[in-house]
Amino acid sequence: MLKFIRFRYSIFLSNLILGLLTFLLVTIILPAFNHYTSTALAQKPIQQIEQKGRELYQQGQFLEAINLWQEVAQDHAKQQQFISQAQTLNYISTAYQALGKWQAAKKAIASSLEILGKYNILDRQGTAVLAQALNTQGNLQLSIGHTQAALETWQQAEKAYTRAENLQGKLGSQINQAQALQTLGQYPRSKEILEAVNQQLQEMPNSQLKANGLRSLGVTLQLMGDIIKSKEILEQSWAVAEQLDSPGITSAALFSIGNLARNLQLPDVALQYYQEAANLAVNTENSYVQLQALLNEFRLVVEEKQWEMAVNILPKIISLLETTPSSRDTIYAKINLAETLMQIDPDATIEIASTDEIATLLATTVVEAKKLPDLRATAYALNQLGHLYEQNQQWPESEKLTQEALKISQNIDTQDLIVSTSWQLGRIFQQEGKTQEAIQAYENAYNALQLLRSDIVAVNQEIQLDFRESIEPVYREYIGLLLQNAPTITIENEAENRELKVGSRAEKPIYQVSPITCKEVGCNVPTLASKVDKNTSQENISKALKAIEALQLAELDNFFQEACLETKPVQLDQIDSQSAVIYPIILSDRLEVILSLPDRPLSHYSTPLPQAEIRSNLEQLYSAFYVGFSQTERLKLAEEVYNWLIQPAEADLAANNIQTLVFVLDGFLRNIPMASLYDGEQYLIEKYGIALSQGLQLFPEGLQRGKLEVLMSGLTEARQGFTPLPGVGIEIEEIAKKVDSKTILLNEEFTEVAFQEKIEKNPFRVVHLATHGQFSSDPEETFLLTWDTRIQVKEFAELLQEQNRDSIELLILSACQTAAGDDRAGLGLAGLALRSGARSTLATLWSVDDLSTAEFMINFYRVLTTKSETNFTKAEAIRQAQIALIKNPQYSHPYFWAPFVLVGNWL
Hints:
Layout: H1 15-24, H2 45-58, H3 62-78, H4 82-99, H5 102-118, H6 124-143, H7 147-163, H8 167-183, H9 187-201, H10 208-224, H11 227-244, H12 247-263, H13 267-281, H14 287-303, H15 307-323, H16 328-342, H17 355-371, H18 375-391, H19 395-411, H20 415-431, H21 435-451, H22 453-456, H23 463-482, E1 488-494, E2 499-504, E3 516-517, E4 528-533, H24 538-560, E5 579-586, E6 591-596, E7 603-607, H25 611-623, H26 631-645, H27 650-655, E8 660-663, E9 689-692, E10 709-714, H28 727-736, E11 741-746, H29 752-761, E12 766-775, E13 783-785, E14 790-792, H30 793-800, E15 810-818, H31 826-836, E16 840-844, H32 850-865, H33 874-887, H34 894-897, E17 900-904
Parallel strand pairs: 5-8, 8-9, 10-11, 10-12, 12-15, 15-16
Antiparallel strand pairs: 1-2, 1-4, 2-3, 4-7, 5-6, 6-7, 12-13, 13-14, 16-17
Helix pairs in contact: 1-8, 1-14, 1-16, 2-3, 3-4, 4-5, 4-6, 5-6, 6-7, 6-8, 7-8, 8-9, 8-10, 9-10, 10-11, 10-12, 11-12, 12-13, 12-14, 13-14, 14-15, 14-16, 16-17, 16-18, 17-18, 18-19, 18-20, 19-20, 20-21, 21-23, 23-24, 24-31, 25-26, 28-32, 30-31, 32-33
């Protein structure tokens, strides 16, 4: 289902933002009609005619106002009152815009600007009229889809208002620039402008400008994810609008607050705001507020399957669409309506609109967009019409329409539309059996996504749903196409001898797999069909690997809601000749794995399983790590995942003398400790050192052994609702004996301020935090506990970066856990590890017994600091510490030793 309050790009179908633009724009002209009129004209009849025109305009009688103003403009021309003539032509253009007569509006404003340029009027009065004319021209340009031109025009208007010493005009033009930047997807720049404007508006008396500026900032903050501040600012806008007793401005404020309520999953509250906004907007000069409120109300009741309400709302929308002049905004409103109609369940008890009716609506929208002309709107409408045919499985028609939309998108270089049209075309080609064409289409979409990286993430946390529906599938489907058509082998289970053997659909096995026995317990591993590809080209596998790493980056960008990670990708397999990199990727119908070995071609293998089944099995395995779960079931599940990820590569790993496995994990696999995977006889950690990576940034230098400057901070006492950690005292005391230089902050000494002061003043190589913490897919819920507060992930990263970014070799978080019920909680750990700048991060996936943690950490530091073992990598030090726990009967259960994971540099 398509969402509101969304990213501007069409692939995210941000209908609301398109609708916001018209009534968020600040039009300085009308309130200032009298301001620069010549004093000499004040008592003349022509001034009375001009005033009558303004009254007619405010009443919505635009043609009548135009007729009067044309008379006024002619009189000014005869009297050679050129400034007044230019200003009146400006009014005429504004009225033509209200009627949707774009050519006439364009001609009038061009004449106004021509007069001002011809006579080179540079005094304050002439400059002020020039600024107004530029503001009007910007409104016109945006209305017909020329957003970049509108932005540039409003920048000129700002300069003219500055020269005219008109602060309100300057602020209004800045607000308009911010709206244009949002249309272009440049949200951070928009926010920066609006925050500066807001500082000045707070000191000004209430006005339409102030209400509009506050509302613009509130909407932008909502898009950027600051929901609390957005609510505060939008309510301020509402309060100002009510004091002004302006139904139009108030309705716009209510509409924006309704969107906020919907964004917070409060549909009933949102519905009330939409209804009130629509009612207030009746008979105002801006009927588009009413139209957008009704469209959002309609979308909401359709989502809630309130069919009778939907049937009642639809005629009102149709009536407004028929009476509102055609413009870029109404075009997007019609697409909005069509999209909602396309989402109606075919099994709905009432048929609201037929497929033919929706097709007609979109087809007429295409014609209107071409007539403007607005190429972007044309491409958008064509793409949606193609999508309708795609839904109806009319592939030739869908292909033709989508191709046309893509061609226009490429001609005007709109990467967002290139993504959506290319993705759609790739899906269509797949249905038509045109695999190579599909790969090329997906590659176009993928390349465009890379160009859009900084803009995709400039939205609130709710966009994650859209990310998972509209961005992530592009990556996964592209990877799936690149890696498809691999030969198949079957790994069969024979219950009689509990031995797994190789079978094949071909005459001979394609990939030899060593027999695996299940001696420890009577486990029964399900039958698997694994594919090992020998035909997929190295080029395709390499492209797939790059796409996997790009997806990792996109997920982290989405986590932080900004493209904050500066990446310098390195070849992980070239860092260490005894390491192998394993890239699993969960697709809709299978689990693919790419294996990268030092100085060897890439290879890949797959297990055909539905995505839902893969997730279910992983969730069961995650639950099985708690003490009390059946050991037989746990080992069976751990062996099953081992067979997915490791078994097909066993021979190659052995032949290349691999000592360390580096996993670039995907999805819920991030929540699973790879150390606990089981081959039927041993855990994976008993055979290999293990590390995790995002495939994005690594530092090839290993930890400098010997002298370690360590900052150790921790809590032994209960704080802020978290349990005490008495083992932390032992942990810190024993580790302190093994390092040469240490600074300790324990309990009440471990405050945020104290921690920050120590970090700022000392270049610690190791930062060790023995405190509660949580990793979540929501950065607001990813935090570390101090004595007095919770430090959230972004703030924590900033604290660490007070030092030289490269100075922290190792960050240790010894009492953290992933958020319960969060299938992407592992993103929190990955995000914190990368954002902190530490070369390596050692953390826990769940909260472990603090005494066993203390023993693990003591063993880890022992290996790390022993002079005779300086060749040990960090991954090997962790492996030795985990094996020590496995050999301890008290802590041999994976619950105690499995959750320790190393992220980043393993050397």
